[in-house]
Amino acid sequence: MSRFLGEIRQLGYVVNDIEAAMKYWSETLGVGPWFYNPKVPIENYRYAGERYQPHNSVALANSGFVQVELIQVRNDVPSMYRDFLRAGRTGLQHVAYWTTDYDADLQRLLAQGFQPQMSGEVGKNGRFIYFDTEYHPGTVIELSEVMGPKGRMFDLIRAASQDWDGQNPVRPFPDLNTL
Q1: Alpha carbons within 13 A on the beta-carbon side of 167
Q2: With a threshold of 0.85, does the pTM exceed it?
Q3: pLDDT tens per residue across span 68-90
Q4: Among 15, 52, 57, 131, which is disulfide-ready with 21 (CB 3.0 to 4.6 Å)?
């Protein structure tokens, strides 16, 4: 449990080959099923205060209470993921805390001196922000809003992982507009 925001809910891994990573996690580690989106619909994306159009592929699966996120960068837009790769790293890049009170939690972190570096939105009430906290690899902190369709999708992914029998290890992301 973190004294800042409760439980870590997601571990985010930046990978060079998301298909190979999903295969490894499902076949070797038994984690799945993976919900895969080859181009995540990120709106209002900002990195270091500037607007960009990122193209990232993402796969999500749960191992118990914790969600694992695999991220592959598909274009050269500035991002903390790209910075991580350019530093010669792959693997755990961030830990995420989920919130249903995004504005209050964001203000609390800003008051504690956390510095925003990257932000955007995935669906209605699906804001996210990454802070400049990487003092060693894998320590970036993400605050992720889970009120709207994104939260319902995360619930669906966790439910699918319970008693997963290894069949259909890769599935498409649900349509956020229908959740």
Answers
A1: 2
A2: yes
A3: 999 999 999 999 999 999 999 99
A4: 15
